[in-house]
Design goal:
This protein is mostly helical. The chain has 10 helices and no strands.
Length: 194
């Protein structure tokens, strides 16, 4: 049973890298299997096809990539905005080069396939909800004034994703860093934005 889990985990890890690098449509099952040192039968033991393997990858990797880092901020006793900014500035060197894996797939697949659209929308909304929870904590600890944490969380997520896309397009990480610093500078001024 442990070997089966290891094989499945290996397939998902390599699938993530292949899709992140080449997109869903450009991802090659043969490359994935070759990198994993497996034959097609090994993949079909766990997944019906490439689509099912990638959907499983999204389900499992999105929590690992986004959920944990964002949710860890909620464990601090205070300084939520400071921890949020630090996490964003230190956690995204690869994302700034290759883009956000979630946003990349949303742009590629959400208009093409309803299963991708549904799952990607759900994952994006979970990410936004976690940001909203961080904002609620910041409001409770008087770090921020805001009457609509929902709207502000959507705004923050849009700014962060826009910064990642601009950084990827222009190949300049300073764009990302400056955008995040500017965003939090405005938030920390405790202006009532939303």
């Amino acid at each position: 049973m442990a070997k089966e889990k290891d094989t499945r985990t290996l397939l998902l890890e390599i699938t993530f890298e292949e899709v992140y690098t080449n997109g869903y449509q450009g991802a090659s099952v043969l490359k994935i299997l070759k990198k994993a040192g497996l034959n097609k039968g090994s993949m079909y033991h766990f997944f019906e096809n490439k689509k099912e393997m990638v959907l499983a990858c999204i389900r499992e990797k999105s929590k690992e990539i986004f959920g944990t880092k964002y949710e860890d901020i909620l464990k601090y006793p205070s300084s939520y905005l400071e921890h949020f900014q630090t996490m964003l500035l230190t956690s995204y060197p690869i994302i700034c080069e290759r883009g956000c894996p979630l946003a990349n797939l949303i742009q590629e697949m959400s208009n093409i396939d309803p299963d991708f659209e549904l799952l990607l929308k759900e994952r994006y909304e979970r990410l936004r909800e976690t940001i909203e929870k961080i904002l609620v904590k910041a409001i409770e600890h008087h770090e921020l004034e805001c009457s609509s944490p929902y709207n502000l969380s959507l705004f923050i997520l849009s700014v962060v994703e826009g910064a990642i896309l601009s950084t990827k397009a222009l190949k300049d990480k300073a764009i990302y860093d400056n955008t995040i610093k500017s965003l939090f500078s405005v938030l920390k001024q405790n202006q009532h934005l939303f």
